[in-house]
Amino acid sequence: MNRQQAQTQGVVLTGYHSNAELLPKSETPSELSRRTGHYSVQQNHSDRHEQSQHPQCTVATELPSCKPEPSSLHLPKLSSPRLQHPQCNGPEQSGLQHHQQCTRVAHSSPNSRLRRRPACLRSNSQDSLDELEMDDYWKEVEHISRSAEGERRAEGDVVQEEETSKTPEEGEQEEAWLVEAGLARLFDDSDPNDQEQDEDSSAFLSTLTRSQAAAIERRLTSLQQTLRRKNRQHVPDVRDIFRPPEEQQVPVKTSEVNGSSDKDVSSPSELDTELNVEVAFSEQALNYRENHQGLKKSSSISSDDKLPNFKLLRDKTGQTRIGDLSSLDMKKVQRLVLVEMTALFDTAGIDIKAQKAVKIRSRESGLFGIPLTNLLDQDQKRIPGTKVPIILQRLISHIEEEGLDTEGLLRIPGAATRVKALCLELEASFYDGLFGWSEVKQHDAASLLKRWIRELPHPLLSVELLNAFIAVNKLPTKKQQLQALNLLVLLLPEPNRDTLKALVEFFRRVIERQTHNRMTLNNVSVVMAPNLFMYKGHRVKATQQQEVSMATGTANIVRLLIRYQELLWTIPKFIVTQVRQQNMESQRKQNKERAVRKLLKKITTDKQPEKSAPEDSVQGFIRVQAPQFSKVSMALQLTEDLQAADVLSRFLSQDCSVLVKKDELCLYEIGGNIKERCLDGETYMKDLFQLNPAAEWVIRVVQR
Q: What whole-number distance in Å separates Cα of residue 216 and Cα of residue 221?
């Protein structure tokens, strides 16, 4: 394919196959004055690489296995995104686009010689700062591409890699979405006797907000039209399932939605940093859209200190974290979150084209390049209850043991030959405990960590959700982007979610030492973005503009994941409220069906012990159970300021035989309108009791 054809067809955006030209390796020292913003570059044809005086412009040592072909021209690195090239003409372009075009012109002729490049003046604008920081992204992409190419050449691998995903056919995406939401009965009535499924769908639909119901209706209508074109079986009309908007049951009152929206869309004051989790995010977004028609969102990445200091509005009934609910309630959560996430994107007119994961050939055991679930299965046989792969835990702990003050940690790659040798050694001796960790250098360990992420057969963010993560950048506000990420984190498979949490916690600890290692939030984000979003077998053709947009967009997603991790790994209150409503609706339907008087009396008798707590509470008391300990129960008076943490403290003070620490215990809310929930220490017991008076209160050792 000639150069003109390549530019017409775009580039393949992947770390393993690319028809875009690689950025040349740097051979030029550069002088940067942060005070004046002046960035001067001099031509240098020496074979030795030198590092920039500025920490963000550090050039990695050339990898032994990634040497260019002898016939190719070894070009100096363009140290600034705004460097001018004599062969580049045309209208003024953004720095990174200009950088890429100049690079490709330089590569177009193997015999061409670069003329002396003039010094480039860099303004003090935020845009220029972003472009300079994004240079680390392109260095990381180059390192990934050259490293993979070097390995393929060394192994003599000429077989094309399998594609790990495919685009669903017409109608498949809507059908898969409805099935995942547990609503298959809406389009498939082949089993009219499946009454349990009908009741479940009915209870689920009764709790939806207007925007959530509209999201389901859109997918169902689209699927119906597709099925009719294909002359398939009769599908129930969507109008038979959803009532008109004025009759639709909406658990969130209109006044509450409007009230919260006034708070959300007011002037950019202190209120903009508060996240309202009591009202559905999609309902808030609808109100925002109505009040901000025609406004354009800013797509640039702000500096670290410009990110809003978002915080959750304090809820007296307690914050619910991932892992606090029972598995049965978590299934309900994920169904609701899928619908809510889709509704949120619908408010912005964003259509998510979900990819379908394809089963590929991969190793069944080992450390690198095996499915995450397989790796956890083999780890759990050694250490039961393992949630994060042991190899990842050990790599992180080794890097931290050696110290996080190493300059350029995560940014500067290790030597390719050493990293490859260490990888083989780990495969052979890691589980035997014979691997020599003391010999592993910091940058080599960081490269092993990034390599482990990249070589997962499917991306850590999952094939199905990857496009949705990328589309988050299209949402109009940072608040909506954060809300979408919260929902996407909840939708991730549990092994992926736990592993991602371990990574972002580690990245935060690296950033906390930025005064020593020079790795700010932006630096870590741009370096890690290619490793999280580029994976084997994934091929996406993109223009130069799309490539730059992908780079800044994915870096922004990683940045938000790191910065707001404490908020993202929580379950919004409105979702928990919908779960409670669904449980109550299911219980109501079950009780209604039990029409036999004798059985009804038996149920009433069975529930008397459960109502003993409310009898105590008439006098302002609740009874707390502790079946795992010698002190089986205790009565506590409900006061306005009594919190769950106070309950645990009183229990420990009364039972001296308990050897566990307070942070190893949890007060659970069990029964009533929730299956099981581990309470946040700041939960106000009187407020929660009023929300769920039929619940039992049990102290247990927490399993995290």
A: 9
